[in-house]
Amino acid sequence: MRVLAFLDGTLANPEDPHIRVDDLSVQRGDGIFETVLAVGGQPRELRPHLDRLARSASMLDLPEPDDAAFERTVRLVLDNWTGGDECAIKLVYSRGVDGDPETKPTAFVLAIPIGEKIKQARAEGVSVVTLERGIDPGLAERAPWLLLGAKSLSYAVNMAAGREAARRGADDVVFLATDGSVLEGPTSNVIIARGRTLYTPPATIGILPGTTQAAVFRGAERAGWTTKIEPLTAEDLRDNDGLFLASSVRKLTRVHTLDGERLPDSSAVHAELAKAYEDVYA
Ligand SMILES: Cc1ncc(COP(=O)(O)O)c(C=O)c1O
Fold first, then answer.
1. For the domain bounded by 119-279, which CATH number is listed?
2. Is any atom of ligand 1 closer than 6 Å to the C-beta of 210?
3. If you ran DSSP here, which 8-state letter would residue 146 be given?
């Protein structure tokens, strides 16, 4: 099941065509998006997602998204969702129609089911390969036009990295910068646990500031953990008590294998952190 609505409050059949072929999202991937997890009819971290949508819009020089309209449309979509306890909600916002000076952003909200692969990854963990991203940690600040850390619709590279992981027999990817520092996954943030401290790299190195990473850190702090946002090296991916990928739909997923090498079992740490994360919404 899928539920689609536009920001003017109209529901539409997701199986019908709605986007013009000359929309800039279709032509150039020129737009932004968010994916929000909803559980029991409640969107998680909607405010941080809308804040990040506004941040991405500003990075792409798009008009400021209408927060209230997005919020209402998310509610409308959720009120019409009958596909079970959980869904993923996509907020899409493109620059509009190519060559039309009067164009307004194309914006819609679409709820979709959680895929089986994601459910399996949540339950069993994932194998990951490290891949080069070809950027250095200072590039995002030197070259804002590269849109590093914007959640743009240009995700072809991220998708290609996923296919490369599959070719190498792995489920997912951690991108490394040219100096070997840890960036993020193609659709996730990296978190490591060492003792009772959690670490994640700073968004300033050109990665997306994760809403799930922030929620996990909030939950962990409430449960007595210390959290640190600081650069991580490729060695840190091995030298820890748990390596995790975090994102809205996958939640906190345990990495059990790194570059073909089985990591020490971190199930107990994962269970504790997964609970701390769920407790944020209890
Ligand atoms: C590149 C990238 N980094 C990190 C994340 C995690 O963000 P969030 O936890 O807000 O879903 C995503 C989410 O899809 C992503 O695409």
1. 3.20.10.10
2. yes
3. G
Point out the ligand 1 atom lying closest to the alpha carbon of residue 246.
9
- Do 3-114 and 119-279 show the same overall fold? no
| CATH architecture classification, 3-114 | 2-Layer Sandwich (3.30)
Q: What is the mean pLDDT of residues 37-59?
A: 98
Q: Model's pTM, two decimal places?
A: 0.97
Q: Is the C-beta atom of 200 inside 6 A of ligand 1? A: no
Upper half-sphere CA count for residue 3 (Cβ side, 13 Å): 21
212 lines ligand 1 (CB under 6 A): yes
pLDDT at residue 256, as a whole number? 98
**Ligand 1 within 6 A of 106 CB?**
no
Ligand 1 close to Cβ of residue 189 (< 6 A): yes
Q: Give me the residue spans of the domains in the chain.
A: 3-114, 119-279
206 touches ligand 1 (CB under 6 Å): no
Q: What is the average per-residue pLDDT within 101-107?
A: 96
Report the pLDDT value the prediction gives residue 46, as an integer from 0 to 100: 98
- Sheet-wide strand order for 31-39: 11-12, 3-6, 106-112, 86-94, 31-39, 42-43
What angle do helix axes 67-79 and 46-59 make, rounded to 10 degrees? 130
Q: How far is the CA of 211 from the centre of ligand 1 (A)?
A: 7
Q: What's the pLDDT band for 157 if we cut at 50, 70, 90?
A: very high
